[in-house]
């Protein structure tokens, strides 16, 4: 693993499962609270971090939603996205697809326009300013109604050019993919790419994965490691080239297991599995640390890491030209690293 540290740091990476609100570090949360004249009930950063107590998805989500109350203005969203993009770029993330949760903001009175204009401007500026490409994925909150989801989709349409796809996140318990069939059908008709979370070890997980594949016909599943419990679904996902955005350190926090044995098995079975950071401000690991943790706990080799990076570029929603260019960059890296002693 010692050798693989440099290799992972230099690897050209794509990140496809990253909630921008989950990158709100305590320092920025304090700064935004001050700027927006809001009081926070914490003495300092350590005190704030100590309040981040959770052991599963359902106990994580209230912490995550409460923290984002400091996000109010377009500038706040810009600063949040810029901070993430700068960090990702410093880790040689060459391309990111970034989730945002507009309903977590519109439901507390922040206009959709504030959210998308701030995030969208940061994404545009980062291309020249930081050398990182990114696109935005609007996530529907599955524990809210299908009507609110449809209204949010409609609200997104004037900003269609700034949003590459639609996802589904928040609390999965009792909120199956099928609840949003109409919304996702409409999203497809509007030209959006589609993905949905099937969080790890959830109730009815294989039924939810089945609905994603058969009923909604998504292109990717976020997390989705429980697919391994059903042979027919594995075969179908493999044949379709379905993408899986696995998040090892996040899995460790919410299930007590990084699920790297599953990640390795997914790769062995020819599934397009990738490694991502999910909510790095809460799970204390951005892309590089997720890959290092996965490599260490799953005894991954350089060839596995190259396959993970290749999968990510392949299942990304980049156009053909930029995708081919990044894949070529990765292959050059793989070839040159293979002749270096440290690889
Ligand atoms: N799962 C569901 N909802 C979420 C997540 C997640 O991993 N992160 C932020 N919201
Ligand atoms: Zn997620």
Summarize, please:
This protein has 343 residues and is α/β, with parallel strands linked by helices.
Q: What descriptive keywords fit this protein?
A:
343 residues; alpha/beta; TIM Barrel; 8-stranded parallel sheet; 53% helix; 13% strand; binds hypoxanthine; binds zinc ion
Q: Radius of gyration from the CA trace?
A: 19 Å
Structural class: alpha/beta
Q: Using the coordinates above, name the CATH class.
A: Alpha Beta
By CATH, the superfamily comes out as: Metal-dependent hydrolases
Write the layout of secondary structure elements.
Blueprint lengths: L1 H9 L2 E3 L10 H10 L9 H6 L6 H11 L6 H17 L2 E8 L2 H4 L5 H18 L3 E9 L4 H11 L6 E7 L11 H9 L3 E6 L6 H12 L3 E4 L7 H10 L2 E4 L1 H8 L4 H9 L3 E4 L4 H4 L3 H12 L3 H14 L4 H19 L5
Parallel strand pairs: 1-2, 2-3, 3-4, 4-5, 5-6, 6-7, 7-8
Helix pairs in contact: 1-15, 5-7, 13-15, 16-17
The structure holds hypoxanthine and zinc ion.
Hypoxanthine binds next to helix 4.
